[in-house]
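ugh finaly. both done.
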Amino acid sequence: MPIQLTDSLKKLLKETAQQLKGAEKRKFIAQTVVALGHGGQSLAERELGWNRVTISKGIKELTTSITCVDNYRSRGRSKAEAKLPNLLEDIKNIVDSQRQIDPEVKGERMYTHLSAAEVRHQLIDKFGYNNRELPTSETIRVKLNDLGYCLKKTAKTQPQKKTQK
């Protein structure tokens, strides 16, 4: 006899599934869907908001007793330094020639008046990087911050006000 989903049972199942992670969550979802009986996958998707791919993956894990390992760490892009091993050293060489110590001497941060776009441009000019292989200015800005450099806008000179004599 299949289980009837009441509002309190739906709430309990959703809360329990949210507390679990990975294989434990998939196993719980699969056991619940199997208990729901025929049409349980579509019912669980519609009423509980569970993903059909996750449900079928959990059922396969439940029937075969083999747990799938999710390799989340290998997803996404690799760091720019993986492709360009000398990038950080070259950025340091460019910025070190134009850095300044914190003017208020409140910390150890180093300031530079170079923009990330200018550093990128100098990497192309001085070190022969290809425009396509080099990361964007935004990535270079993040690398500058990671290296401890703080970008500081230079104050534009303001015209002096005319005073009445």
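ok and the 2nd:
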Amino acid sequence: MSLADSGPRPGTPARGRPRSEAVERAIVEGVVKLLEEGVPLAELSIERVARTAGVGKATIYRRWSGKEELFVDVVRAAEPPDPVLPGTCLRDDLVAMLESLRQRGLVSRSSAILHNVYAQMKSSPRIWAAYHAGVIAPRRVQAMEVLRRARDNGEIRPDVDLELANDMFVGPMLVRTIMRPDAELPDGLAEEIVDTVLEGLRPVSSTAS
């Protein structure tokens, strides 16, 4: 999915009065048009978006509280959707989550605009904070719930630090997708990371050798 194909995600909670898909798409496309023209985030005002989209500022504010929230929705719509976890076992859930991160890495590499957008977003504390609160934090909460359930079920040792365990699973994928843009993101990478880390987290057999 390209940034130009972005649109409101199905199931997004309504804000204010009933939402018009056509109006929202015009607003999102207005943001995308400005980004494609090279307008920096710092100059991407609600007034400018409204003028480009052919709507009033009030129309945008009925749907988004400000440009930070609007921009996060545009970027989130351009990313692969969050995975539906199988819930069958710890390994399957972790693989689904890491595969989603791998797909996001592939998308950001293939889209020059999206790659530039991520870079600019990190230089804007307010937009990055909104993205973190609305996108990154919920994913971490989901991962922690998966690990906590696995600990309670005996799939991993009871003494495992779950915060650290989550970083151990996610870290290698983030290194490849963000810090090493030249690194390969092959099929099966998610499974390889999960299986490698799980080896050190599983309960130790009490049977003496």
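summary for the 2nd one i guess: Residues 46 and 61 are 8 Å apart (CA to CA).
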